[in-house]
Amino acid sequence: MKKLQMVDLRSQYLNIKTEIDHGIQEVIDSCAFINGPAVQAFQKSLELYLGAKHVIPCANGTDALQVAMMALNLKPGDEVITTSFTFIATAEVIALLQLRPVLVDVDPGTFNIDLKAIERAITPKTKAIVPVHLFGQTAPMEEIMEMAKKHNLFVIEDNCQAIGSDYIFTDGTKKKAGTIGHIGCTSFFPSKNLGCYGDGGAIFTNDDDLAKQMRVVVNHGMTVRYYHDYVGVNSRLDSIQAAILNVKLARLDAYAAKRRTAADFYDKAFANHPRLKTPVRYAKSTHVFHQYTLITENVDRKALIDYLASKEIPAMIYYPVPLHMQKAYLDPRYKPGDFPVTEHLCETVFSLPMHTELDHDQLTYITSHVLEFLNR
Fold this sequence. Notes:
Blueprint: H1 9-15, H2 17-30, H3 37-50, E1 54-58, H4 61-71, E2 79-83, H5 89-96, E3 100-104, H6 115-121, E4 126-130, H7 141-151, E5 154-158, E6 166-168, E7 174-176, E8 183-187, E9 201-205, H8 208-217, E10 222-224, E11 227-228, H9 239-249, H10 252-270, E12 276-277, E13 292-296, H11 301-310, H12 340-348, E14 349-352, H13 360-375
Parallel strand pairs: 2-3, 2-4, 4-5, 5-8
Antiparallel strand pairs: 1-9, 6-7, 8-9, 10-11, 12-13, 13-14
Helix pairs in contact: 2-9, 3-9, 4-5, 4-8, 10-13
């Protein structure tokens, strides 16, 4: 049996090595390392895949979120609502721009932002909502967009974990995650479902004016070379990473299917176990399983993870500390107990290996040892 990893990037690479190496070599031969043909080709391919009018490649997912907020011309002190159960980057960019992060709780089943909590958090100072499509499935975007329209708010989708997920509206129409709000943002960090071999990100929008503004922001605020009309940043996706992403984008749906197959195996193995809750699959979203995350009940989580490590099975906790309890983001508005669902999840969740290269023997080995620990 192959060595188990949370994400097996090497095995995935070996399966597409010829195309990846060819794409990299083409960039090196051309010496078009920045904004070269590979970047333009990837941009067009991603626009087509997503059904998005505009894709703006950038340097990473954190930059994508920052550029989105800069393009909306938000002012210091403006409030931006997001979840307390997410990676720090979501709140980080809000704070960096001197905006005011307003944190809310999540749904206990899907782990995505709670609609009632959003409604309660809206004030006259609220300017935007940032739903995070956590672990691979889309937040309740139809209701969020209705709420945003009612209160005249922007919606920025943090789609760093759910690229490729389909959202199904009440009328049966579908849209890709990240293309429903005013702006969508994603990361191409290597472990993502669509990952490069370094850093990378992209921003999506169907709004021509926002697209124009974001293209200016990512390029030093420059409208004409050496003429800077806005404060901007330097955030570019390099050509080598774009060449890699172009190869992997063609396989993204197949990769998602493999992840779902692995998730189905886990679900079946742990079905109805009294000490585990398997991930809830939201009826209005397909799940692309960036992570496979279980909730434990009456389990010594550390002992379980240590036991799995002794069997060379990796496991991770996403996320051990809620944003409202992170030292850098302590705020007198929030105290322990204010976000009971988030705090419970941070104390009880753990994630098992999830990637495109998991095979039957590996999945059997993982699940049997999880069950062995729980049932002893």
